[in-house]
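thought: fold this chain, then report.
action: predict
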Amino acid sequence: MVDFNIELQFFESNKGEIIKAHNGKFALVKGQKFYGAFDTPDNAYKEGIRLFGRDIFLVKRISAKEEAHRNQALSLGIINAHI
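observation:
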């Protein structure tokens, strides 16, 4: 299981200034460092792969309002989660 606690804690601690400068973009975070804001999640992910290869990094939308995403296939019973 992948653990993003360090990256998420860093993002939350710096969220105000990141939002002020980059609202609506996508953040690239590794450890306790912000590596930039990108127009699309794909661009952030590509830069993360270039910088870190297969190591763990976080790509997160920069927004004051948190978005919840629901897996429709799971909700509709098309796939099953074994929790």
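thought: worth noting. The mean pLDDT is 86.
final: tokens above.
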